[in-house]
Design goal:
The longest helix is centred in the middle third of the chain and has 14 residues, at 185-198. The protein is built from eight helices and ten strands. It is α/β, with parallel strands linked by helices. A ten-stranded mixed beta sheet has the order 1-2-3-4-6-5-7-8-9-10, with helices on both faces.
């Protein structure tokens, strides 16, 4: 069933004049009233000067528990899911917690926010063509078979920085300093604030995670706004070494994930960031490398329960008031 509702339309238009950003009409895709819902929320993007949309997922039981404050998970996708924030938006469902909750119908107890990075904010020379990519679809009943790709012939053993094989982005030999999600950091925070304002969301339990390009973005956004998150989990993406002290001083819980066979985001980059955080005195660092996994180690991370349960252990009592 597809329906459209107007949520605080006049108020939203006023906000848009002040911030060049608003939640407009919300498209809802849902089943029964007590089922989960996937909303497409409209906004005006200051970075592209165009109308765009982002996903807001409401878990099963949301409409029956009006007094409950739900934890929030903000997900940043990878480089390959960038798009126009409109007809391309469903590609955001390809990987990550929103795929688990909506496509695989898992009862994840989070409000999930998932925007789409504009194409202009990508790695130069690495473009994406979605024309041959199937859009992820939620089945009327049941769930689609999982895709376990990225099988690597590399042996399961440790490599050092000098001998690690080159992958598809072999020109990125040095420690990366990508931009991307940080280019729209103000829009990300405005999305978060509007969800906290308009939904039954707990501002003390807001978590940030992302894969690959979104893993880099997770580090960047957390470094820019360390007090906005209760915990973060960058997956097969690393951060800037100069940000390690800021994250350590904020005592922001971090769980880094990598794949030991990853030839796209080299594992030793993650080790360098983990060591920088540890040397800075970070008090709440976890670091997991899946020795048998390639770049898509995120499939195992989000398919499991450990990360979601770990998130829910943390509250952010240092959030801005």
């Amino acid at each position: 069933m597809i329906c459209v509702e107007n949520r605080n339309k006049h108020l939203s238009l006023t906000v848009s004049l002040l911030f060049c950003f608003f939640i407009g009409p919300i498209s809802s895709i849902a089943g029964e009233k007590n089922d989960d819902q996937l909303l497409k929320s409209d906004y005006f993007s200051a970075s592209t000067q165009k109308q765009r949309q982002y996903f807001v997922y409401l878990p099963k039981g949301y409409n029956q528990a009006n007094n409950k404050k739900w934890p929030v998970m903000f997900f940043l996708h990878g480089h390959g899911q960038r798009g126009n924030g409109s007809s391309d938006l469903d590609y955001v469902l390809t990987h990550g917690p929103l795929m688990e909750a909506w496509i695989q119908r898992r009862p994840l107890p989070f409000i999930i926010i998932s925007p789409q990075l504009p194409l202009k904010f990508g790695i130069p020379g690495v473009e994406e063509d979605h024309s041959q990519d199937p859009l992820p679809r939620r089945l009327e009943s049941g769930v689609p078979e999982r895709n376990y790709g990225f099988k690597s012939d590399l042996p399961i053993r440790r490599f050092n920085a000098e001998e690690f094989p080159d992958g598809p982005h072999s020109r990125f030999k040095d420690y990366p300093n990508f931009k991307g999600w940080i280019n729209i950091h103000e829009e990300i925070i405005l999305m978060l604030d509007k969800v906290l304002q308009n939904y039954h969301a707990d501002p003390g339990r807001v978590y940030l995670t992302g894969i690959s390009y979104g893993g880099f973005g997770t580090f960047d956004i957390a470094s820019q706004y360390p007090d906005r998150w209760a915990a973060i989990a960058p997956v097969v993406g690393t951060g800037k070494l100069q940000d390690a002290q800021k994250l350590a001083d904020a005592a922001l819980p971090i769980w880094i994930f990598g794949g030991a066979k990853d030839t796209t985001v080299k594992p030793h980059w993650l080790y360098e960031m983990a060591n920088a955080l540890q040397n800075a005195g970070h008090p709440a660092l976890r670091f997991t490398v899946h020795e048998d996994m390639d770049h898509d180690a995120w499939k195992r991370v989000y398919e499991g329960e450990d990360l979601f349960n770990w998130f829910l252990r943390y509250r952010n009592d240092r959030r801005p008031h």
